Amino acid sequence: MSAFIEETKCLLPRIAFLACGCFSPPTPMHLRMFEIARDHFEMNEMHKVVGGIISPTHDSYGKKGLAPSADRLAMVKLALQSSTWIRLSDWEVNHPQWVRTRSVLQYHQNYMNNYVNSPGDKEQSGPLPGWLPYNLRERKDPIQLRLLCGADLLESFAKPGLWADEDIEDIVANHGLVVITRFGSNPERFIFESDILTKYQRNITLITNWVPNEVSSSLVRRLLNRGQSVKYLLDDLVLEYIKRTGLYNMKSKYITDTVQPNRLLFNRAYMENIKNATSLAQSPPTDDDDEGDEQHMDETDSLLKRQAPRVFCCGEASSPVQARATKLMLNRSGPGQAVQVITVESAMGTDKIESQAKKQKIAQVQQL
Ligand SMILES: Nc1ncnc2c1ncn2[C@@H]1O[C@H](COP(=O)(O)OP(=O)(O)OP(=O)(O)O)[C@@H](O)[C@H]1O
Ligand SMILES: NC(=O)c1ccc[n+]([C@@H]2O[C@H](COP(=O)(O)O)[C@@H](O)[C@H]2O)c1
């Protein structure tokens, strides 16, 4: 019986999903969309899902909050480390300019068609792209590439001047749409109100997300920018990447404007110094303090683990001017008696750090 089910599955038409978007940064919901869609098609035994592709948009799309594509690619790669079937395509970002979604779908569809129909590896020139799903050649039937999106993207079809009607028609007629519900959207009504979408309704699959999560990239950016925690809203690796690079103007109680995160060595001795400086300004601890400390420890601990040889070493000067301005301070802080280098800029900035810490403290208290 199970052999029969397996055989039937093998006969189901094959589909793959492509999600376009900014992914600035990628959130767990971007990846959940793929899982929800795959379950829908496979559990209803309608299709065999062969792969998922994430295609971040080009830098020149220019949307507010769009991090450089190199960072977005790196973050998506990190987020995808736990997935066995969703892959990243860098074709769109490496294009000379912004590409319309219709062309993105066409490119990936054509590539898969040619690949499946070519007789063997020798026909392929150069290495295969990383986004190409595995084992496509085990069958010869075509793969339908569908656009996977949240209901808000579907509703953006109505924004004047954003999508050309012929593009929308091409996408729904020749590829098909898989739409995941999202709070605040009414995709059924939206389809009803659009003649094109109603015409091709059979090519649109609406899937209710029964476990909605309204996390979005813009929300995450806002929290980061305010110095608030986004832990558990992002993959830990993605969060660590953002902390290291200082993307999205990330603020932290312990990382001030005078010392940019990407210039820091995450050195325990350094952190101790900053902590001492801020503790000068501290009033009796509040619950909020605990949260701040936890955040701080997350950051240093994980980085310290991964940068073990750097734990008890000196800080680095990022420019000759800074090098001249460095001041050595001996700081006994455990095994190896770390030598902490503090730039004059940051040493002189202690008052500033103190007053910033005070201001933050006041702001926190006012928020209570
Ligand atoms: N929470 C969510 N639920 C359902 N779909 C989502 C969710 N978050 C993002 N998506 C979908 O993921 C795709 C890529 O989204 P994109 O990165 O452009 O949007 P976003 O996370 O909503 O970002 P922003 O907040 O910057 O607009 C889109 O199809 C979007 O609808
Ligand atoms: N005409 C088009 O093909 C068109 C228009 C707007 C957005 N998009 C794409 O939709 C995705 C999501 O964009 P937003 O985050 O602006 O909703 C991006 O990948 C973008 O390139 C395509």
TrEMBL record:
Domain Cytidyltransferase-like, residue spans: 18-222
Region (Disordered) residue spans: 277-300
Enzyme category, top tier: transferase
Reaction catalyzed: beta-nicotinamide D-ribonucleotide + ATP + H(+) = diphosphate + NAD(+); nicotinate beta-D-ribonucleotide + ATP + H(+) = deamido-NAD(+) + diphosphate
Any one Pfam family match given in the protein's UniProt record, by short name: CTP_transf_like
Gene Ontology terms, MF aspect: ATP binding; nicotinamide-nucleotide adenylyltransferase activity; nicotinate-nucleotide adenylyltransferase activity
SUPFAM superfamilies, per database record: Nucleotidylyl transferase (SSF52374)
Gene3D superfamilies, per the entry: HUPs
Keywords for the protein's UniProt record, in alphabetical order: ATP-binding, NAD, Nucleotide-binding, Nucleotidyltransferase, Pyridine nucleotide biosynthesis, Transferase
GO BP, sorted A to Z: NAD+ biosynthetic process
Pathway(s) this gene product operates in, as recorded in its UniProt entry: Cofactor biosynthesis; NAD(+) biosynthesis; NAD(+) from nicotinamide D-ribonucleotide: step 1/1; Cofactor biosynthesis; NAD(+) biosynthesis; deamido-NAD(+) from nicotinate D-ribonucleotide: step 1/1
Enzyme Commission number(s): 2.7.7.1, 2.7.7.18
Protein family according to the UniProt entry: Belongs to the eukaryotic NMN adenylyltransferase family.
Protein name: Nicotinamide-nucleotide adenylyltransferase
Species this chain originates from: Drosophila lebanonensis
Organism lineage: Eukaryota, Metazoa, Ecdysozoa, Arthropoda, Hexapoda
Originating gene: LOC115621914
